[in-house]
Amino acid sequence: MESVDVIVIGAGFAGATAARDSAEAGHSVLVLEGRDRLGGRTWYKHFRGKEKALEFGGTWIAPDQQRYVKAEIERYGLELFQSPTYDKFGWGIGGEIINAPFPFPASDWPALERVIARIDSDSDRIRFYEEPLGQPGLEDLDIPFSDYVDRFDLPDRVRDFILAWPAFYFGAYPDKLSALHVLSWNTGFGSAVGWYLFLVDKIVGGTGVLIERILHDQQLRVEYNVDVRQVRDHGDHVVVTAEDGTQYTAKHVIVTAPINTWERIDFSPSLPYSHQAMATEKQAGESVKIWALVPKQDEAFFGVGIHTTLKWLATEYTTDEGSYLCGFASAEADLDGSDLEAVTRAVQEFLPGIEVLDSDSHDWNNDKFSNGTWMAYRPGQVIAHSQALQQPHGRVFFGNSDLASGWAGWFDGAIESGARAAAQSNEKLHAASADADADLLVEQG
Description:
The chain contains twelve helices and 19 strands. The protein is α/β, with parallel strands linked by helices. Strand 1 (about 5-10), helix 1 (about 15-25) and strand 2 form a beta-alpha-beta unit. Helix 1 (about 15-25) runs parallel beside helix 12 (about 410-445), helix 3 packs across helix 6 (about 180-190) and helix 9 crosses helix 11 (about 380-390). It is globular. It starts with a strand and ends with a helix. Pfam families: Amino_oxidase.
């Protein structure tokens, strides 16, 4: 049975970063990936039957606000491009679709300004990047985001507008979302204006380009189609067992699989309380991302709504074969991404009468290696668990976007968390090596 210093479970952004940083520190590394591809919850592939390649998982970055992803983009000299400038708008709030660049009359501005000022003020309390989000003094924010908003007694249109953004950004309804997690992204953006302006930058060639560069950096070996089902810490080494019975041995293991998949793995000794609680409760992200091909449009569309099936719909590309719209529903129950008729009805809520030529989607909620989408803490989970989730369990370390101190749910968070897990592992490996050298000198002396 082959033995290495570090086994990394998962080849998404966190896994690639953890593997590279472990190898850079001089350790032998093996990456085990359950799928037949790199990327984890990102996936850049062709729209069904078309030449156009699209992001079916994570897509955007905000390099001016996201320090870790910015450093990787600069390290590997990757190029970015932007989503189009929008010409047409639709806002699904107040029980109607409002077609205007911004959906409020002057009479609603005082209420909007009041709630945004409070959101920005509460967001400033969060020490973003400095430590896990469950920081003392923030307990009053770890409540349902809908309850947080309802403190302000807002007009219906303003309330709907405020609730619509996290419904899209987190892939869950506001009553299932911790306001603390929602506000942490506002902290990262710098103000509430960021929700509206910053989701534009994408990597030329797709997200896979960056993951490939990170792994190639140290010529790392990846074994695909390895469905890890057991991680057993024997005290002086760890044995990882795949579904087919194949076993791998290492001094340390870094688990970068998403929280919602941890129940699939038999950990021995059993996971600590917070890890086990999150594995059982799950995080709330269950977005359905769809791509819809429509006849070529002269104007790019942007829409956001809370009562619409799609919480966000926008033109991302226009080609000779048509325009590609990207949309997000907040839950699997709201939309079957494989049902063309259902996708057509959802798109037509924003764009009445438009023909949807075809649609494509990946069901992340029923994908056994994700069992959901990106991180969306439920109310109460941040304060209860976020600190403990970053701690190792014996020789087993944890790193994925779910566990980030900053952008939990983004590529940036995955890179941050993967690097932290590698640093924790490296420190212990180096300490063990130093102790072994000291013991050898004593014996020789």
